[in-house]
Amino acid sequence: FFQSLLQTVFPPELRFASIKFFNRFFSYFSAYCYYDITEIDGVNTNELYNAVQLYLSSSASITGTRLSLTRGLNSSAITFGLSNNDRLVDSYKGVTVEWEHIVTQRQGQTFSWRPLPEEKRGFTLRVRKKNKHLVLDSYLDFVMEKANELRRKNQDRLLYTNSKGGSLDARGSPWESVPFKHPSTFATLAMDPLKKAEIMADLKDFANGESFYQKTGRAWKRGYLLYGPPGTGKSSMIAAMANYLGYDIYDLELTEVNTNSELRKLLMKTSSKSIIVIEDIDCSINITNRNKNDHRGAGAGGNSGGRNNTYDSESTPAASANGGEDSGNTITLSGLLNFTDGLWSCCGSERIFVFTTNHIEKLDPALLRSGRMDMHIHMSYCTFPALKILLKNYLGYDESDVERELPAEVEEIIDAAEMTPADVSEVLIRNRRDKKRAVVELVAALKLRSKRKLKNEDEDEEQEKRALDSDKDGFEHFQENCRGCEEKDDECIDEDKE
Ligand SMILES: Nc1ncnc2c1ncn2[C@@H]1O[C@H](COP(=O)(O)OP(=O)(O)OP(=O)(O)O)[C@@H](O)[C@H]1O
Ligand SMILES: [Mg+2]
């Protein structure tokens, strides 16, 4: 109304100034403050917008009669949202605020380096001026916190992976996500119960340790290194950790990351309460490739001089000028270490780093030194306690069933058989309809493996013995030769004397 009035009263050249003036005039006398939270802020997605949407969808005081419902692809939860241009009232600490969802058509596509949605969406928050400080100081933080909590509780965990070649998706994120539905839990994980309890306690301490980390001046993060042969449950352990703590997983594919700075950007875009995973770390990066900028250096591990020499030779200016080009990848170990425990690793809190490897002996000692990977977890071949868990999960056997059905010798041969939990579960799944047969087949497999193993060991021992014997023969032969030489030398000396 005022605008049309202004248009009739004021000449065009004065119109803009007069609108500005009236806006100022009204906002001065208005009892309310307005905050706009747009979906896209410049080129970045506004996290607050998503948080508000989620928060309002669950708010108990929803008064709107028209709501929009959404369900993400593969997600099992339905999200309620405010329909276009709808309002709802919320209250916080006795203060009433009003939210309005405003959707307008975007006018003409302006130039942008990524396509913007056709609609311009945003929330407007209206509060009384006297309550302005409450909103700015704590209400919005409360909304963010609540939204994060809701997402973790209601929705499935998310599994993120870095997009191919470092490209960004429509929302400007280098991570692509899918709902994470791995059913592995600590209850289904077959491993030594004591070790399992220790890991669970460690995780819980971490998740509840905000004040501890604050007090001790440490970054709120923790690193786990899982190592062991293929099929011993390393990936299952990561899934169990995520399900136990309710964290999202960022599965970092290092081969898709080209430079250290790209790695840093990826890290910056991860959220807190997440597990950042690098699987098969020995395969994804030439891990001994450190450049000269790494001061926390090789010596930190206090390890073999031979390897340190390697770093020294790589640290020459000529070598670092190559920047690891010889490996075809400019990600360096120092870049990776910065990622996990440099200053940048603290740009968010409550993060867990998990590295997995099948060959711990191939890893750089700098990666293994204490403080870097806080806990080294050995995922071993199937042990007897682990077997009992698998029998319980797959066949429903309890302790007494195991004692009754399983021959006593299993406990003796299982370690020698070196069967992975994956091998064992395969036998059990194959025969899950016939429990007796499952046990018979399992025992047969264990016996066969342990026998083969022992035979191989005997053969190895024999070979070693043979090698030793031949060495001994050689040594005796050598000694005889030497004795011959000495005698000759003596003769020579005598001759010299003469
Ligand atoms: N400790 C375990 N407890 C329960 N199931 C297990 C365990 N280890 C392996 N399995 C079963 O074997 C399959 C393979 O395990 P998983 O992928 O976790 O092994 P991994 O150690 O990550 O192997 P890789 O080194 O090849 O990645 C899983 O589907 C899981 O069901
Ligand atoms: Mg795995």
From TrEMBL:
InterPro entries: AAA+_ATPase, AAA_N_dom, At3g28540-like_C, ATPase_AAA_core, Mitochondrial_chaperone_BCS1, P-loop_NTPase. Residues 220-383 form the AAA+ ATPase domain. SUPFAM superfamilies: P-loop containing nucleoside triphosphate hydrolases. Residues 463-472 have a biased composition (Basic and acidic residues). Pfam families: AAA, AAA_assoc, AAA_lid_At3g28540. The keyword Ribonucleoprotein does not apply. It comes from the Eukaryota. Residues 292-326, 453-472 are annotated as: Disordered. It catalyses: ATP + H2O = ADP + phosphate + H(+). Transmembrane segments: none annotated. GO terms for biological process: response to stress. Gene3D superfamilies: 6.10.280.40, P-loop containing nucleotide triphosphate hydrolases (3.40.50.300). Residues 310-319 have a biased composition (Polar residues). Keywords: Hydrolase, Magnesium, Signal. GO terms for molecular function: ATP binding; ATP hydrolysis activity. Its cofactor is Mg(2+). Belongs to the AAA ATPase family. BCS1 subfamily. This is AAA+-type ATPase. It comes from Handroanthus impetiginosus.
